[in-house]
Each structure stands twice: as structure tokens, then as C-alpha cells.
Amino acid sequence: MKFASADPQKPTAAFWELVDLGRRKPDACLARLAELDTPELVDLYWAYKDAADLLREPEYYEYMTGITSEDGIADLASWIVAQGKEYYQRILAHPEKVPTEEPEPYFDLESAAVEEHIERHGDGIPWRDPS
Question: How far is the CA of 115 from the CAs of 58, 96, 109, in angstroms?
Fold first, then answer.
């Protein structure tokens, strides 16, 4: 199963299905992560990270007026992805609609993928080959 696409703004439908499952049923999402093979898990992590990183650009964080740290900006970007495809795409298209405060607690699929990888291999997600 493929989660990333050539365009980081457009993760695959399988990616968004897993994001939605995490929002609705976190335990079922964790069970699904456990079923992924390692390359799929790594692909999921990088698809999520790439999508969130797009929201860490100046055009977005200039509107995050209540966020005072890099960690806060990263958390908010991850939270935006966790809200699902429609919300994410709306924010990408309209940076002025970025929430201005720290996000409420949410199921963090990116961190869950890292934890699953650590459980299997004893370490975090490997860096991507830049080639």
C-alpha cells in the first residue's frame, strides 16, 4: 500500500483513509499500523511528515499568532493534517484560516508510526535516501 505521492500536497487516498480512521477510532488505527509492513510504515511516516511540513512555511506560520515555539508550530501542522483531507486542503489553499492557538489533544498518526517502528526495530524511522 502506498501513502505518499510525488506531490507532498497530495498524499494517496489510502493515507487519508488511515488519517480518518485515527480521528474516529484510534485503537483501530493502531491495529492497522501493526498490520503494515515496514516499508509501508516508513512511507506513511514520510507522507505525513511531508504534508505537515508544507504548513511550516512562513505563509502559514505568520498566521499562527498564538504559537510561540517551533514545537508548537510543528504540533499545529500535524494537528491540521490529522483533521483530514478536506480541512488540510482548505488550510493549504487559505493560509489565513490557520488556527491561531495550540491544538486540542488528537491522535498523532505520525508519532504512532514512529512508535510502531521502534517497537519492531528498536529505533525510529530511518532517514530517506536523498537520491
Answer: 30, 33, 10
